């Protein structure tokens, strides 16, 4: 199938499919006229890639994990390197979450201090009743 049909069947735009190919996540043969030609397995592969991207994995992580992937969701079978890679990714996510929590706490402190200095009668700030400040 050509890239347009793969896009239609997976809901992934052609630009992203080309990106997956450049990242080594997806393979295509070339026809005599230069068009990409994908086999039926490409539909499953794209769905696997989308699920893994949704889990926060990078394209580099995914390239590493795809040989262990089975099924659409996918289930990742016991490649020894797999657990180490996923644990590393989980630790990075945990570190980012801790950093965000510290930033949020600092911002709440600044808002509280600014409200006290302004002398206005703001309700106590718990972080849930305000809109985010534009960046």
Quick summary of this structure?
Keywords: Coiled coil, DNA-binding, Repressor, Transcription, Transcription regulation. The protein is mainly α. Helices cover 57% and strands 6% of the residues.
Overall description:
Keywords: Coiled coil, DNA-binding, Repressor, Transcription, Transcription regulation. This is MerR family transcriptional regulator. GO terms for molecular function: DNA binding; DNA-binding transcription factor activity. The chain has 135 residues and is mostly helical. It folds into 2 domains: 1-77, Multidrug-efflux Transporter Regulator, Chain: A, Domain 2 (Orthogonal Bundle), CATH 1.10.1660.10; 78-120. Helices cover 57% and strands 6% of the residues. It has 5 helices and 4 strands. It has helices spanning 3-10, 14-22, 41-54, 59-65, 80-118; strands at 29-30, 36-37, 69-70, 75-76. The protein has a two-stranded antiparallel ribbon with strand order 1-2. Strand 1 and strand 2 form a beta hairpin. The longest helix is centred in the C-terminal third of the chain and has 39 residues, at 80-118. The mean pLDDT is 86.
Highlighted features:
2 domains, transcription, mainly alpha, elongated, Multidrug-efflux Transporter Regulator, Chain: A, Domain 2, single chain, MerR_fam, two-stranded antiparallel ribbon, 135 residues
